[in-house]
Amino acid sequence: MSRNSNSGNNFTNTNNNLNNSQQNINDFVENMHKLNNIGTQMVGTFTQMATPYLNEFCNNLATSVSTNINTNNSPDSSSNSTSSTTYTTSSENQETFNKKKPEYNIYKTDKTINILVYLPGVDKKDIDVKINNIYLQVYANTNLKTDDNWNHLTNIFYSISLPLDNNYNSNDLFVKYENGALKVLVTKKKEQASKIEIN
């Protein structure tokens, strides 16, 4: 009788231990789910906070690479020397600028490409527009240090290289600058279909 009683107690104890183990596993799984949710929320928050900075960094990096490639391929690349913070205006005079990619807008029709580049604080004489292969390049700088009262300001060097859909030259462009906006109208080349003779 005592043997049956001991067996019953052992069975009950084993059963209790299994139930406790199962409960511990369930608690562990539930806690892991909670921890996973907290981690997901933290990653989401971090991503939302970091995205604008990462986008700006990537845009600046892409502009820098694109500008360096296009400037180096340009026949007159030696006339302008640019870096992230310094733009050399002449051999004797070196001015420090903040380099910035300007805001722009492109609108295409069947006949034209309309490009608007925003250059606030820039005089017309300080703008340089070039066509280099299939790229429209715009360089400009502000001249804010008009007298000693403004020497604390740092001028801005705007630089952008915009891809076009074809090779163009200066005769294909109409350029106008007013109210801090550079308007470039590119007349698309007419593609003439040539008749193919069949023998």
Can you characterise this structure?
The chain is α+β, with helices and mostly antiparallel strands. The chain folds into two domains: 1-73; 79-187, Immunoglobulin-like. The chain is 36% helix and 33% strand. It has one helix and ten strands, in the order αββββββββββ. The protein has one helix at residues 2-73; strands spanning 81-82, 86-88, 94-100, 104-108, 112-118, 122-132, 135-142, 155-163, 173-178, 181-187. Strands 1-2-3-8-7-6 form a six-stranded mixed β-sheet. It has a four-stranded antiparallel β-sheet with strand order 4-5-10-9, with no helix packed on it. β2 and β3 (94-100) form a beta hairpin. It starts with a helix and ends in a 12-residue tail after the last strand. Mean pLDDT is 74; it is low at 66-92.
